[in-house]
Amino acid sequence: MADDLDDVTDESSESSEALIAVHWREEGYYPPPASFVAQANASDPAIREQFTEDKYPDCFTAYADLLTWYKKWDTVLDTSNAPFWKWWVGGELNASYNCVDRHLETHPNKAALIFVPEPEGDAHQAITYRELYVRVNEFAAVLRELGLKAGDRITFHMPMVPELPVAMLAAARLGIIHSQVFAGFSGTAAGHRIADSGSTVLVTIDGYYRSGDLLDHKVKADEAVEAAAKEGQQVDKVLVFRRYPGQYSAKTPMVEGRDVFVDDLLAAHKGEIVEPVALKATDPLFLMYTSGTTGRPKGCQHSIGGYLSYVAGTSKYYQDIHPDDTYWCMADIGWITGHSYIVYGPLALGTTSVIYEGTPNYPDAGRPWRIARQLGVNIFHTSPTAIRMLRKVGPDEPAKYDFHFKHMTTVGEPIEPEVWRWYYDNVGKDEAVIVDTWWQTETGGFLGSTLPAIDSAKPGSCGPAALGIYPVILDEDSNEVPAGSGKAGNICIRNPWPGVFQTIWGQPDRFVSTYYAKYNKDPKSTDWRDWPYFAGDGATQAADGYFRILGRVDDVINVAGHRLGTKELESAALTVNEVAEAAAVPVVDDVRGRMVEMYIALKPGFDASPEIEAKVKAAIETDIGKIARPKNIWIVPDMPKTRSGKIMRRVIAATSNFTDTGDITTLANPEVVEKIREQVQTAK
Ligand code: PRX
């Protein structure tokens, strides 16, 4: 429990991103073009009145009504076991049916997914709703044959290929709880998540393309199974999709009795139909692991009814998805953005969702725009990191291609106003709206964003709260920080919403202590008003009600929109024998927003060397993955510490970021600060 409480202690704010946030000046407004307003799903400002607090929680039935239910709910929101909220209690539905089967009546031959492989010479593959139906059913038959059933967990360690949504929807058809691990994570990281979720089946692929390389992915499955076994979890079956039959998988080593190629299994299930199971709205749909303050990742558990209704509703009103749009979210399905806004939201609304295997700037910065032109993409969704990268390497590229977006999204990290304007002018070509969407793995869908046909966008701010979301900024003493005060505080959501996660898998105490304990005054209360959701972000609210998110206030670093826990990074570094102490801090980076810098102090008798640095880097790549690679590793003579021996990350972060270290006179070893500053700042 002490470990769990770490998530919200003062200590955790010491290296926080919010402390190094750049405070931009207030920008002007960008109203939506008339052409956008004319076709938008929500263009009447009166929609807000349907979501005011007096209509809560029933207002969200507008979202639930977008779905097809086997049985309607009896209770909209049950708060009796606060803060484990239950939405649509008594209702029954199936997510796979909602994303696939029901579209067969209206548009069976329309593309549900368009897969764009990274090699530019390879043809893209359009998968119609009917084909998706066939593939989902056949894979569901495979899972059923393995004995998997509702409530069991299955782990996917899959890259951006259409087999991933097929597998997700097949699991959802049977009520099997899926846990997709980002393909860029190491085998060891996947193994921890397999063990935590108690999965007995792992689904993977032989290889995939990334930045021009055909990567061997199966090797990670072997590492994952081994890592899971060390934690006492046995994996009985590893299902291997074949991305490149003949070219690659012939070389893939398979473990007899455990590993099977999926196409061999599918052969016995051609054309088989698996009826979707009617599941409770409150049953779990999937787990999505994310980093927290402690080393152990958190399996955020999302419900079928609440989650699906929320992503369908926000896809309709905020993404402005219509069935005849071609929608491309250039995120990865291994993260929550991909779950909500590549797979579940767009498919629930019956649109065409593009899946791109590769990186945005491979082979050059024109690739995304060629894809957009070729497929006629009209809604585009990406991260500030991708926008910064494309702007840096190919600022004039978008003008060379004839593509037209009506709507663009940014997600995952704060976007600098000048980057926003480049996106608006050069990619949007003055024809598109931009929504800056603030939310989290835990929240299922958007919390803060403009309603694109109603609100003007303001660069650098995500906008007002989403429909039916009532945020508040609180200081450490639970006082409200007023809008327009220019002061920052902890942004919290005062009310539950359908997309909010249900719990942390297997760690209910950590769920309460991390997200709800900080501002709860009565742990017995069943009134939702007593349980503000603590998001872990610093924010300010301008007088117009728009929120600006400053970054994490806890020990989480958001690198290129991906969350990394400082404890995870530090424990990886500590596996290196020579390392005595390690501290990970965020540093501002002009492409990735934030990156990690590692400070290392060595055990007595060891001297700094490039070999030790290389070992630390390798340890991080093995334990977490290449995405966690630090920007710099500084081997320093000692760490600045308080008299009680606590490492002062705030001071270290200030050194990395050339900001003021604040008062250091009370440290046990203030003299070391100057030494570190000289070492690091001279080298930069
Ligand atoms: O710090 C916030 C930042 O990303 C965190 C959530 O990360 P994750 O769970 O990986 O989900 C990312 C995709 C939703 C938040 O706590 N964040 C997310 N969106 C924004 C943002 N920061 C500023 N502006 C955003 N639009």
Automatic annotation (TrEMBL):
Output this protein's name. Answer: Acetate--CoA ligase
Gene3D superfamilies documented for this protein: 3.30.300.30, N-terminal domain of ligase-like
- Which NCBIfam families does the record cross-reference, listed alphabetically? Ac_CoA_lig_AcsA, PRK00174.1
Q: SUPFAM superfamilies in the record, alphabetically?
A: Acetyl-CoA synthetase-like
Q: Where is the AMP-dependent synthetase/ligase domain?
A: 101-504
UniProt keywords (A-Z) are:
Acetylation, ATP-binding, Ligase, Nucleotide-binding
Q: Where is the AMP-binding enzyme C-terminal domain?
A: 568-646
From the broadest rank down, the organism's phylogenetic lineage runs: Bacteria, Bacillati, Actinomycetota, Actinomycetes, Streptosporangiales
Q: Which GO terms describe its biological process?
A: acetyl-CoA biosynthetic process from acetate
Give the Acetyl-coenzyme A synthetase N-terminal domain ranges: 59-99
Q: Does the keyword Transcription apply?
A: no
